[in-house]
Amino acid sequence: MAISSYVWFDGKFVKFEDAKVSILTHSLQYGSGIFEGIRFYETYNGPAVFRLKEHTKRFFNSAKIYAMPIKITPKQFEGAILETVSKNGIKEGYIRPFGFYNSIGIGFNVRGLTTSVAIAAVPYKGLYGEHVKGLRCKVSSWQRINSAILPAEAKASGNYINSILASKDAQDSGYDETILLSNNGKTVAEGPGDNIFVVQDGVLITPPKSSDILLGITRDTIIRLAEDLKIPVQERDIRREELYTSDEAFFTGTAAEVEVIASIDSRILGDGSIGPITRLLKSKYSEVVHGRDKKHLSWLTVVR
Questions:
Q1: What's the rounded Cα separation, in Å, for the pair 185 and 91?
Q2: What pTM was estimated for this model as a whole?
Q3: 32-58 pLDDT, tens digit each
Q4: Which residues belong to the active site?
């Protein structure tokens, strides 16, 4: 991946190679950081950040859940993101804000530790590359973390060790990606960093909040676009066997956007190619993020 030329670091721009922390930084040692993944796209009006306010709200909610003091306001945070994109002169890409304990800390006590916020912006094409025929997925033996163990709604660094284990296991077994279950393996949760949707008899179905999912902003976008397109939507529990008999399935996420799932545990879905509802939503999503849909222009914040 290409890197930023400049990183916003606690209110100042520094060159990427100068944005350094100690090897003993608490958040590096213990995963005690929070982050966001935000996309910006080239539009007729220039680069525009997609759903900036929603990402900002989730970042500060993650900090609140973990009782992590953030030294800037949401308004300053949004301004810093726009400045970072502008400073790096990138037309389309990915933004990674990171809040972390920037202090040497051996042990779990974070009282008195200094916090920092860093923001990088990089050119970015997509998470999975070109999967013309869709992803081949495996249901993981690792279950999704739940809120009795770690706060599933927080986008915290340590949470994703769970995802790394599950994804690596699938890839080591020859699959492209994995799907995690929740509720003691009884229902579907999500992908390692994506929400999941299935289509059954023309109805779009996605796991509910009670399945310990991260409440994805792309997930919310797809639900709202489906409603615009008069596609019936259900947020309900999905059993594992329902994955195999679905007509279509896809992942959603800031990095993944809308990514087709062709097969699950070697069961081909439909004819294995992109289905009509997935195709429609994928196309509509592209129109929205590139500013070609007038109804949802308010979701875009243009970089000046």
A1: 42
A2: 0.95
A3: 999 999 999 999 999 999 999 999 999
A4: 155
